[in-house]
Design goal:
290 residues, eight-stranded mixed β-barrel, 20% helix
Length: 290
């Protein structure tokens, strides 16, 4: 019988049972792809990250959704794994900021960790922004989201964006429009399949609160109905808003997950590449026996 240390950490959370929960499994080098997919299904979280040895970085990370789809990019799946290692003391002293390297798919990306006020905070750099063509017609998208076409604003236009994973970024009228969205999975899949995008990130901006956004994320492509905090969408959004003149100081704070009862706060800084930061809280730690 093999025993692996594993558990749950709430990412982008200040108190337990908020933020976006992530399952983490350590020393996963001996697991097959099928075992990792089945373990992710057993945890039944948005994502489960497996920590492995790497010849290219300090750690290699592989992440799977509960439905078994492998996902990439430096989002809550990566940040949560590093916060888990730090909270468990596996990274040594972090009283001064230290930078580590993480292998995620084809990419090797840095992450900076530091203990501030007794809590570990991480900051991850994502890839440069890559944009695909805007949608020509938003009517099918509005129908798929259960919204009126007038809820979708033309500036900046709805389009796929990528800083590690590609998602469709859709600006809507206001917070009420974000919360009223009620996607129909097959219709949203039909819209996404005509683009390079994996998921759909709808967001609203507030003229009275510049450099903040309110968002929800849907990803039926990988069997994820709604996600409480999506770092791989937050990074592209900040970079896209800056590129279109909709961000004033190269920093963006995003509130996500509130509609789900899992309020999360994601902070992105453009320096000039997107850097995603946040903390987390370990809520479960134990062993998996196989």
């Amino acid at each position: 019988m093999v025993e692996l240390i594993a558990g749950l950490i709430d990412v982008f959370a200040d108190v337990p049972l908020t933020g976006n929960p992530l399952a983490v499994v350590q020393d996963a080098d001996g697991l097959t792809d099928d075992q990792m997919r089945r373990i992710a299904g057993e945890f039944n979280q948005a994502e489960t990250t497996f920590l492995m040895r790497s010849t290219r970085a300090d750690w290699k990370l592989r992440s799977f959704t509960a439905s078994g789809a492998e996902v990439f990019g430096a989002g809550h799946n990566a940040l949560g794994a590093w916060l888990w290692l730090a909270e468990n003391g596996d990274l040594g002293s972090l009283t001064a900021a230290r930078t580590f390297q993480q292998e995620i798919g084809r990419d090797v990306l840095p992450i900076e960790l530091e203990s501030v006020g007794g809590r570990i905070h991480g900051r991850m750099r994502q890839m440069p922004l890559r944009l695909s063509d805007p949608l020509d017609d938003v009517a099918p998208l509005a129908d798929a989201l259960g919204l009126d076409p007038r809820d979708i604003l033309p500036e900046p236009p709805a389009r796929p964006a990528d800083t590690g994973a590609t998602h469709l970024l859709v600006r809507v009228l206001n917070v009420d429009s974000v919360d009223r969205a009620l996607p129909v999975a097959d219709k949203l899949l039909a819209v996404l399949e005509k683009t390079p995008a994996e998921g759909c990130y709808i967001y609203a901006l507030d003229a009275d609160a510049p450099d903040t956004a309110y968002a929800r994320f849907f990803n039926p492509s990988v069997g994820l109905w709604e996600d409480a905090a999506t770092g791989t969408a937050a990074g592209p959004l900040a970079a896209y808003l800056a590129a279109t003149g909709n961000l004033t100081n190269n920093e963006l704070v995003i509130e996500q997950g509130t509609k789900m009862g899992r309020r999360s706060i994601l902070r992105i800084r453009l320096a000039p590449l997107p850097e995603l930061s946040g903390g987390g809280i370990v809520v479960v730690k134990g062993v998996i026996r196989l």
